[in-house]
Write a structure and sequence with these properties.
six-stranded parallel β-sheet; ADH_Zn_CS; oxidoreductase; 357 residues; seven-stranded mixed β-sheet; Rossmann fold; 2 domains; single chain; alpha/beta; Quinone Oxidoreductase, Chain A, domain 1; 12 helices
């Protein structure tokens, strides 16, 4: 089979690799039907995640079909169509018993495309299959489902829930990339008074409006002043950081009101300054986190019921063997307008509109 193999900083290739095989009785092997590319994959290629060793197949999100299961797997069987979660859970350690699967100490956590071969391949081995794949409702498309492997549970759990969004809140999302847009969509579930999206790219700000943002701001044009004007000078109740740079994190801390929450979702590759000389007196709560994916079954049901606009974030589709082209398009989002790219299934040359059904 073929997979997209990491060969060191700035180097990766779609190439022949050995077929995966069951290693443990709790494993499953999945034939990949659709995958997507995450901003974290770009961080790996930039050298920001040194734990990823050369020779590792990248990717941690997929939809596919079970082709083989180990003897201890009970919840899925060959032929089942499943979502492969970005987080693998042993189900037995102290963290898994608290549904903190991202912190699994029993051999799980974020391992696909990180510590073991990932999903950007024709087949993938998934450890601890009973808790790490989710059977899919029959009417849910691959494009809609694959975004539930990572970005929607990440934005919902690490952004909206950690930020404690409540009815009537002012919510600011800094970064209108895929995770930020998913945060806009999931924050709406809690009926905030307003959602403000901040980004540099006009196309992404327009996408944020299409997904429910009430106001948008160019990050270069003092968005903190807009937030102050909208809130009588108080600031936002919740600010969600969805970029991962020192500048955006510090911007978030300037826009939050006393007693408010800053929920950091972005993957940071450099230190950020925490201005405690200003923040210590403001009763600010700052949260960080790796997604646990405990919300995935709920989000799956909501998407199947038409309550979450997941497929609307897909702007480009490719065949699996067009992996390098897909990476180029996704990495060059400022020029290509890419939000999420999906590989696998029918090939579409056209760009799908962000507000498509």
């Amino acid at each position: 089979m073929k997979g997209y193999v990491f060969h060191g900083t700035g180097k990766a290739a779609w190439e022949e690799i050995p077929d995966p095989a069951l290693k443990e009785p709790t494993d499953a092997v999945v034939r990949v039907g659709a995958v997507t590319i995450c901003g974290t994959d770009l961080h790996i290629l930039k050298g920001d995640v040194p734990e990823v060793r050369p020779g590792t197949v990248l990717g941690h999100e997929a939809v596919g079909e079970i082709v083989e299961v180990g003897g201890d797997v009970r919840t899925v069987r060959p032929g089942d169509r499943v979502l492969v979660s970005c987080i693998t859970a042993c189900g037995r350690c102290a963290f898994c018993r608290q549904a903190a699967y991202g912190q699994c100490r029993g051999g799980g956590g974020w391992i696909l495309g990180h510590l073991i071969d990932g999903t950007q391949a024709e087949y993938v081995r998934v450890p601890f299959a009973d808790l790490s794949v989710h059977p899919l409702p029959g009417g849910l498309s691959d494009q809609a489902a694959v975004l539930l492997a990572d970005i929607f549970p990440t934005s919902y759990e690490v952004g909206v829930l950690n930020g404690r969004v409540r009815p009537g809140d002012t919510v600011v999302v800094v970064g209108a990339g895929p995770v930020g847009l998913a945060a806009v969509a999931t924050a709406k579930l809690f009926s905030p008074e307003r959602i403000v999206a901040v980004d540099l790219a006009p196309a992404r700000l327009e996408a944020a409006r299409a997904l429910g943002a009430d106001a948008v701001a160019d990050a270069r044009e003092t968005p903190e002043q807009l937030v102050a004007d909208l809130t009588d000078g108080l600031g936002a109740d919740v600010v969600i950081e969805a970029v991962g740079t020192p500048e955006t994190f510090e911007l978030c801390t300037r826009m939050v009101r006393p007693g408010g929450h800053v929920a950091n979702v972005g993957v940071h590759g450099a230190p950020a300054t925490l201005h405690l000389e200003d923040l210590w007196i403001k009763n600010i709560t700052i949260t960080t986190g790796l997604v646990d994916t405990y919300s995935t079954p709920t989000l799956l049901r909501m998407t199947a019921a038409g309550r979450l606009p997941t497929a609307e974030l897909v702007t480009h589709t490719f065949l699996l063997d067009e992996m390098q082209e897909a990476y180029d398009v996704f990495a060059g989002a400022a020029d290509t307008g890419a939000l999420k790219v999906v590989l696998g299934g029918p090939h579409h040359d056209e760009i799908l509109p962000v507000d498509a059904a």
